[in-house]
Amino acid sequence: MSDWYPMMYKIAGRKCVVVGGGTVAGRKAAGLLEAQASVYVISPKLSPELRDLADAGKVRWLEKEAEDSDLDDAVLVFAATDDPEANRRLAEAAGSRAIPANLADDGDKGDFIVPAVLRRGGLVLTASTSGAGPALASRIVSELAERYGPEYNENVEVLRTIRSIVKSEVSDPAERRAMLQVAVTDEALHEFRSASWLKDMDKPELIARLRQRVNDRKG
Ligand SMILES: C[C@@]1(CC(=O)O)c2cc3[nH]c(cc4nc(cc5[nH]c(cc(n2)[C@H]1CCC(=O)O)[C@@](C)(CC(=O)O)[C@@H]5CCC(=O)O)C(CC(=O)O)=C4CCC(=O)O)c(CCC(=O)O)c3CC(=O)O
Ligand SMILES: NC(=O)C1=CN([C@@H]2O[C@H](COP(=O)(O)OP(=O)(O)OC[C@H]3O[C@@H](n4cnc5c(N)ncnc54)[C@H](O)[C@@H]3O)[C@@H](O)[C@H]2O)C=CC1
């Protein structure tokens, strides 16, 4: 059983506060940057990785111990210090501002936990063990990285194009659905990825090929 609800949250340009300057804070900050968040790191000290990010202007560093008011206007808070009492107090301060908080030392006491993540452009694969064993989530994502290689960066964009054409050209919902189902096999994605007619946006050609695939499947 797990009572965590998975979702994709839009955080580009929004203030996210990471408290702590160690390995865990660094990992949380890096994940937030992947989603273009506006990242504030609060800690008297920084790991070399975080210092590089601060020097490059990718995160804003407040060189001090965290105060409750540092959380003002944030949409997410990550309490990732090595001081459980400070983490607990920060989560409470976040709660009183209605900001969801993540507790690095005691996941269950926070409002959300962070899964292991593999990004292939728009394809985002995640695994979580609900806190039972994060190393397993990490292992599973490493396995997914082999199965879903870098070609998926392009597959997702090709699919986006195919889907927008199908949505504009095919009015029957059942037919649309059948076409989009046959379009996502590895074999079909491989064909469409290298198709010059798709690059030329030849819509009738695409629709004809998808109809053919639907008929072949019905066999
Ligand atoms: C509850 C949660 C809260 C949260 O951080 O959101 C949490 C909590 C804790 N982690 C601890 C330890 C480790 N965490 C990792 C790794 C990751 N931890 C991540 C998430 C989460 N960790 C959330 C649950 C997610 C889930 O279960 O699905 C990942 C997936 C994502 C990320 O952090 O970005 C990232 C992998 C990223 C990747 O590789 O892709 C490793 C593995 C390693 O280091 O090799 C170890 C050592 C092995 C071990 O202890 O299992 C400890 C004990 C600390 C201590 O002993 O003091 C606690 C505290 C506690 O037990 O509650
Ligand atoms: N969630 C996860 O994935 C994991 C969580 N942990 C937990 O997370 C904690 C942090 O782990 P690490 O990053 O490895 O620790 P670390 O010891 O490398 O870093 C702790 C950081 O917190 C800063 N800090 C301490 N008190 C502070 C305060 N009041 N305000 C702001 N910053 C403060 C320190 O300056 C330091 O930079 C561990 O103590 C452990 O309980 C550990 C491993 C994985």
Automatic annotation (TrEMBL):
InterPro entries per UniProt: Met8-like (IPR028161), NAD(P)-bd_dom_sf (IPR036291), SirC_C (IPR042518), Sirohaem_synthase_N (IPR006367)
A GO BP annotation: siroheme biosynthetic process
SUPFAM superfamilies, per the entry: NAD(P)-binding Rossmann-fold domains, Siroheme synthase middle domains-like
Top-rank EC class of the record's enzyme: oxidoreductase
Catalytic activity: precorrin-2 + NAD(+) = sirohydrochlorin + NADH + 2 H(+)
Functional pathway: Porphyrin-containing compound metabolism; siroheme biosynthesis; sirohydrochlorin from precorrin-2: step 1/1
GO molecular function, one term: ferrochelatase activity
Enzyme Commission no: 1.3.1.76
Alphabetical UniProt keywords: NAD, Oxidoreductase, Porphyrin biosynthesis
Transmembrane segments: none
Classification via Pfam families: NAD_binding_7 (PF13241)
Designated name of the protein: precorrin-2 dehydrogenase
